[in-house]
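Input (Protocadherin Fat 1):
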Amino acid sequence: MVCDNDMFHLKSRNCYLVVNYPETSWATARQICSEAKAKLAIVENAEQITILDELVRATYGYISGIIYWVGAKAPVNGDTWEWLDGTRVNSKHLSISRNEDILNPSCLAIQWKQLRNTNALRWTAKNCNHPGRFICQKPSVVIPDELNKTVSQLSGNLTSVNYPSNYLNNLDYIVEIIGPPNSRVVLVFHHFELEWQEDCLEFMSTGNSAYMSFHSDFSTVSSGYKASWEIVDLSVCFNRRLLILEATHISSLRYPRSYLTDMECRLTVIASEVTKRLLVTITDFDLRSCEEDYLEVNLDPTDEVKLKLCVDDVILGTQLLAYGHEAQFLFSAASINTMISLEKRGYNLTCETWDGTALETTLYLKSNVKGEFTA
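Output:
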């Protein structure tokens, strides 16, 4: 077990910091501890009373009557003390002297004072606005036996050591994520505080495995990272055939999240009856430029009647009517020079059989555009 900050001292299973300067109110002391991802010290057993006593005695000037704030408080005129975690102060462990400021909320402090002709450290109630030193406390960190690891589950979560508290100095480890053949790894960072990023980061592998290497040096530490991974099955892109029995959504992999790049995805849709024609409606279309990504639709596989749909050409709501009971789709996404994923949703279509009745089409036009409609 270790402390995640060199200013704290390991005592039993907790880490403690005695702050001698500046002397502050109880509320300010609590805030300062919180900013260090700690809390004002609490007592759960007799051992911790001894630890706090030793910490105070190790500071300079404690016999002058200076108070040391800890993490308990009582209401006005009340004798019920509670620690910051909501548990009650155990009177078997602590005998609290409260003989002043009873008309104000009291906060708990340790103070060197005389009682029955004996000088000793006492647990005493003080006005919460009284200036005092304070003791911060946080759990110690248990370092895993093996930081380097390989994971093969289809999804999961990863965090830095001690997250959401500070990670440790001088760490070096590698996490390998391996999916089955014909898959890709998508790694999403929901929190990333090494060098701050305002938005979450998402990375995509070019194969079925990904490596994440973490390194921390001897200097500043922070809360680290929280990430999740997802294995995306690419086998659905290998000339898949889909029978249309009812209105069905056809979309890019991971829609409406970022689609994968450096790939082709092929799909053939077939009406449930050979006498029926297929009707395709474009409900969403968010790709990069046509030079990079496009969706090719073949409305008559027997005669190669193909349409190349690009982001600048598509109007949402557009309907495409196949010449027969079958249509083919080819989605092509070019590679990019980084593993960082796109901020593009991809496409979403609705495919259904057409019963021969009149079609009613609603188009969703962008502002400040013009063009022509043709049948």
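Helices lie at 26-35, 46-57.
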